[in-house]
Specification:
alpha/beta; 7 helices; binds zinc ion
């Protein structure tokens, strides 16, 4: 069984950028784990919003959305929304999570996306990609090795919000699932409205054209093969 780890910056990123594909993985029987770096406490246009309350609400919403895909576990790192940095500390946190959960496939933001305006998206992508090497090289974090977190090499990365996509997934059958998941993020109704629905649909239609399908999601897929994917269990 394939184990997929999705790393998002905010609650709703994974559904927004890769929800149709996550739905497809779910239908194919993959085990899916979500990791959300920030608590989303700035995600409101209403200046009266209580940030702590919003963060608590968004955690619940993320749980409800993940249920739509049968996600087995959600890991919340709880960084402040808008302040995520690709630090060595975050890299270590992610690398140890890779070692613990041993995913076959990583879904993450493309850190090379040109003109991406949200710094958290770039930071989450940067840290998620960089943590792969640290997870697979056994001399990183010897303290963790003593705790049984042996090196783990993720063989495949699918980067969403991709700058130069090379992999398209037909999501015609799972867009509905994506929509249901996104609708669970009720605090985001100011952004999650008719226009947002149309945006996602148009984007998927455009991507679909690339592969002759009605709707698709686009990724930069990186497969690491052969000698470079050693290190399991070392
Ligand atoms: Zn986001």
């Amino acid at each position: 069984m394939t184990r997929v780890l999705g790393v998002g910056a905010h609650p709703d990123d994974l559904e927004w950028y890769a929800g149709g594909t996550i739905g497809k993985f779910a239908r194919e029987g993959a085990e899916i784990i979500f990791l959300i770096c920030t608590d989303g406490d700035k995600g409101s246009y209403d200046p009266q919003t209580d940030s702590a309350q919003l963060a608590a609400q968004r955690r619940i919403e993320q749980g409800n959305a993940a249920k739509e895909f049968g996600v087995s576990e959600i890991i919340f790192l709880g960084y402040a929304d808008g302040e995520l940095q690709p630090t060595l500390g975050l890299r270590k946190q992610l690398a140890l999570i890779y070692r613990k959960y041993q995913p076959d496939l990583l879904l993450a933001f493309d850190p090379w996306k040109r003109y991406e305006l949200h710094p958290d998206h770039l930071a989450a992508g940067r840290a998620a990609v960089d943590a792969r090497i640290a997870a697979k090289m056994p001399l990183f974090y010897p303290d963790a090795r003593e705790q049984g977190l042996a090196a783990w090499a993720i063989g495949e990365l699918w980067l969403f919000n991709a700058d130069a996509p090379n992999h398209f997934i037909d999501v015609s059958a799972t867009m509905e699932m994506q929509r249901h998941a996104l609708e669970q993020h009720r605090s985001q109704t100011t952004v999650w409205d008719q226009a947002a629905r149309a945006f996602i649909e148009n984007q998927a239609r455009e991507n679909g054209r690339a592969i002759g399908m009605d709707y698709a999601e686009a990724f930069r897929r990186i497969v690491i093969e052969g000698a470079l994917v050693v290190a399991q269990g070392t």
